[in-house]
Amino acid sequence: MKRRLMTLSLTALLGTSAVLIPLKSNDASAYGDLEKKKSDVQSKQSKNETKREKKKRELSELESKESSLKSDIEKIDRQMTDTNEKLEKKNGEIDQTKKSIEELKAQIKELKEKIEKRNEILKDRARTIQENGGSNRYIDVLLGAKSFGDFISRAGAVSTIVEADKDLIEEQEKDLQLVEDKETKLNEKLQSLEKALKELEELKKALDGQQKEKSKVMKQVKHDKDHVHAELGALENEAEVLKRQDEAIKAEEAYRKKQEAEEKRKAEAAKSQNTGDRTASASKPSAPSSSGFIRPASGRFSSGFGNRSLGNHFGVDIANRGSGVPIYAAAAGTVYNAHYSSSYGNVVFITHNINGQTYQTVYAHMSSIKVRTGQRVDQGQVIGTMGNTGQSYGQHLHFEIHKGLWNNAKSNAVDPANYIPL
Fold this sequence. Notes:
Elements: H1 2-16, H2 34-131, H3 136-143, H4 148-273, E1 300-303, E2 306-308, E3 311-313, E4 316-319, E5 326-328, E6 333-341, E7 345-354, E8 357-366, E9 368-369, E10 376-377, E11 382-385, E12 396-403, E13 413-414
């Protein structure tokens, strides 16, 4: 992902940047804006740093908010767990109370049957007393005793009957009150439990709403955090590209000074020897074309510039089955970027200035890279070896020339066949 962001950032920056690095020209004016370009890059670096610091603060705030939300959600989760446990307990108590009520109903049924029987007994007693003259009947029973012992026996029997009637009435009243009390108590308990259950269900509903709201906010915070992460990553990659541009400009400054010193030395040597002879150029793998470029590798020209079955082809392919086939810099310049790309594989970008015109060449699918970003290279210098990395089918070099800087749309791409000998 980071590499992809790096590629996108580099693409955007190369496509919009006004930094054109002059690399080789006899015209002194070609170096006139070098300081301005250096200042532009440094200005962009400063702005980039400010943006990165701002994004870091945003990220810190979002992380703090995320931490707080996590704490709130954990608290709600604990409350939800506690509420669910209470709900489960209350439901159990309600079930038990309902079970007790059913049992009481059975008891009530039995008591009512007993009460009904007692009522019948009491009715019979009352009816008998009324029919036999009330309490006088009990006196007749006592007066009819044949002896004192019989009197005592009859008196005890009458007393027992009277006491039994009294106990029966008291038991009847007691059972009636017991039934009423139990019904009242159980109904009150059931109402209390149902009220508590309703309150717990309302609390659960409220907690569930809070949980959903917090989760919604958390989702947004994570989205914002990911977005800021991506923006920060892009800015960090842009900072890396700007750093490389700055290094490339410094390398060009050093080369310019070295070149000027060399030209001065040659001029002084020519003056002292009274000769215009110059040191011969280093041997190249092939002679430069009229445009100033050389063929970047040996091999078979396998695919040209323009439309083809796999889509628009913005360069040419040179295939070679040999082992360790060298790739040469098509012209002197500064390595603008040397890295791995998922599409280009191992790739090198070199910026050139030929007769006041800025070009950028691209060397893709290499098996190895022999140069680094910011390095000054000579025409014909080995920059890597031919390979089959990235989106490639078979060992070859994919070579592009851009009149101006490379950009994502490749709008500056020109046909290399018009610039190199094939």
